[in-house]
Amino acid sequence: MKDRYGRLINYIRISVTDRCNLRCRYCMPEKIEAVPMKEILSYEEILEVAEQAAAIGINRVKITGGEPLVRRGVEQLIGMLKKVPGIEQVTLTTNGVLLEERCKALKAAGIDGINVSLDTTDPVRYRDVTGSDALDAVLRGMKATIAEGIAVKVNAVSIAREDVLSMIDIARDLPVDVRFIEMMPIGMGKNYPGISHSELIPLLRERLDGFEPDDTPHGNGPAVYYRVPGLQGSIGLISAIHGKFCDSCNRIRLTSRGYLKSCLCYDRGVDMKGILRGGLTGEERCDAIRQGLEQCIYEKPEAHQFNRPEGISEEHEMYTIGG
Fold first, then answer.
1. Residue 87 and residue 50 in contact, taking contact as beta carbons nearer than 8 Å
2. CA distances (Å), 206 to each of 115, 203, 222, in order?
3. How many angstroms separate the most distant Cα atoms in the chain?
4. Range with the lowest mean pLDDT among 98-107, 163-172, 281-290?
5. pTM of the entire structure?
6. Which end of the chain is more exposed for a tag (fewer CB within 10 A), N or C?
């Protein structure tokens, strides 16, 4: 389905939980109250939304959190989504802490790819950013996932120069793309500006011989890729602020609490949980879900305003939205 600006919307990010086993400084506060499970969409409710999304042309699904692997049975959800007519790809974003023990089950469920969120390979920096000593577990999980034949990408928020340069070595050692993401001014991220990609690109050109554009397809998202001799994977830049890509945005987001959003910048959207739990049945229920999806897509704004803080209306933390 196309929105009113002519963009084809074929991708939905679905958060399955607000909970996480890390406390990254720019994402989740140390002390939060766990959301009662009754407030979170069930897998059956998520499946209903996905079925109607597929019916209007959405064929790619990303499972997110919080940390999706802390929710029991997420592999079963992935298996169910893979069977929905029209859905061509189901992938997952994880912090990787539980990946080593879960990658076989994810493979069996039919997962098409996994993105691992990792901002640094330095143990001290990792502990400072995440509040955890789980770095070794994450690296083992990545290697185990690759060994299962699952495509892996690494997502790193561009926090500090030294972290960016050290992360590139992952693509030297493993067949993975490493993508750097500009910090978005959402929730706690407002307090951690990170490195702008207008600064990062010259740094990479200076430090990496043969840093050249890579135009080969790498996925569904807005990353701009570069290849570097000696790396097994490519380097990607997701420049949400300094490389605004709203004119090609192809996604909507469903939060774990059932709120459908068309843009991270704004608080407006559609209460899908209200539709799902409003007592409708049969075709009337399917129609209402589909209409909610169509409304969200139609009302998708032309562009975000992350470069104008006064224009940002979203006040929730990123972990409650799904990234």
1. yes
2. 27, 5, 24
3. 61
4. 163-172
5. 0.93
6. N
